[in-house]
Amino acid sequence: MLTMKRGVNASKRQSDSAISKAPNALQTLRAIARAGELPAERGGLPPRIAQYLQTATLPSPCLIVDVELVEHNYLDLIRALPEASVFYAVKANPACEIIARLASLGSNFDTASMGEIDLCLTQGVEPHRLSFGNTIKKQRDIATAFSRGVRLYAFDSEAELEKLAESAPGAKVFCRILVDCEGAEWPLSRKFGCEAAMAASLLVRANELGLDAYGISFHVGSQQTDLRQFDKAITQANALFADVAARGVQLRMINVGGGFPSRYNRDVPTIEAYANTIRASLAQHFPGQQPELIVEPGRYIVGDAGVIQSEVVLVSHKGGGDVRRWVYLDVGKFHGLAETMDEAIKYRITTVHDGGPTTPVILAGPTCDSADILYEKTDYRLPTALKAGDKVLILSTGAYTTTYSSIAFNGMPPLASVCI
Ligand SMILES: Cc1ncc(COP(=O)(O)O)c(C=O)c1O
After folding, report:
1. Would residue 417 count as lying in a domain?
2. pTM for this prediction
3. N or C: which end of the chain has fewer CB within 10 A?
4. Which domain holds residue 31?
């Protein structure tokens, strides 16, 4: 069954996808067996999407997400790191079909707003499976989340902690620490987290305020392929645990956030390599009682499961001496490809002319904003035969696209999406 969104066939399955019960072990085993049958060239064109595109009539641009592949990625992760509780980062792709599928497999959910909390609740996810993971929350949203039954909250400042003590009394709280995000293609540094020494004092304070000082979190940056960054952060976490314990408070949990990759224009470590690094680091730094482990994957779960089908609007030159063609697509920075900012995320692109001669291009979106250039510094080459009207597939676009898409910039509709 499939559902389209945003101007296609909106909300068709939103009501009938509710989860009524947690998965049992047999369901999970069956799902693992099914996932094993799926072809899994990470970052390629998923076969089910390729087949679907042969007959589908879609608006352009449109994101197509293979929910079987979402399931496959989730199961790969829990196979590699069974000791972790997975909290899917809803912000990566909040399509109801994705939430429902992951919920049926037993996932928990990391949410950033009341909108995401209510979305998960509507899909039948019990509030105890939600974390309000944004460190920047309105007091009234904390109160509403608490009234809905959410009991797990992030913070990284004293002011936020006081809000939590007042509006979420007794809740489990974890403090996000600053890490430098070195090596990440989409860093999340500076804005989030506080220094470890401050985190230690805040956790002790949380305990005094009657909150349950549960543990700490960090995020080593999204699309983080330098595995050493996890060990660096866990080393910091260990010192912090000791500091807080010396002040009489026993922390119990480490949340290593996300950072697990999609496969864009270059190879990335396997999920097993991430799992082994985290496991080894925890074993080294916490040789006795290991803390509970939380992971909050977003990109890894949905990125490679999605493909944007787009169309060439114009191919042009700016002058006789122009060696690079300008290729304008009907999708750009304002239709979900925001992570091309500073050319950070480099998507793979396929066209109907692949295999023929190629020439270098500057790739741009369709809007009247000169910031809407996708790749100018990066060496992108596309088939010389490419012309207006040709379809273009942008691979591994399942994460952080639909949610970044503007509503009607330049009068163009937001990125449509369909789950198959
Ligand atoms: C708090 C938090 N957790 C998890 C994630 C997911 O990260 P990733 O997509 O790298 O897995 C994000 C991404 O912004 C985040 O802000």
Report:
1. yes
2. 0.91
3. N
4. 1-67+303-420
Atom of ligand 1 nearest to the CA of 176: 1
Pair 262, 331 in one domain = no
Final residue of a domain: which of 278, 297, 316?
Answer: 297
Expressed in angstroms and rounded, the spacing between residue 217 Cα and the centre of ligand 1 is 11
**300 with 258: CB under 8 angstroms?**
yes
Q: Kindly give the confidence (pLDDT) of every residue in the chain, 420 residues in length, as a single tens digit, with 9 standing for 90 and above.
A: 344 443 333 333 333 333 333 344 444 444 444 444 444 468 899 999 999 999 999 999 999 999 999 999 999 999 999 999 999 999 999 999 999 999 999 999 999 999 999 999 999 999 999 999 999 999 999 999 999 999 999 999 999 999 999 999 999 999 999 998 888 999 887 889 999 999 999 999 999 999 999 999 999 999 999 999 999 999 999 999 999 999 999 999 999 999 999 999 999 999 999 999 999 999 999 998 899 999 999 999 999 999 999 999 999 999 888 889 999 999 999 999 999 999 999 999 999 999 999 999 999 999 999 999 999 999 999 999 999 999 999 999 999 999 999 998 999 999 999 999
Ligand 1 site residues, Cβ closer than 6 angstroms: 89, 91-92, 110, 133, 188, 219, 222, 257-260, 296-300
Relative to the CA of 400, which ligand 1 atom is closest? 9
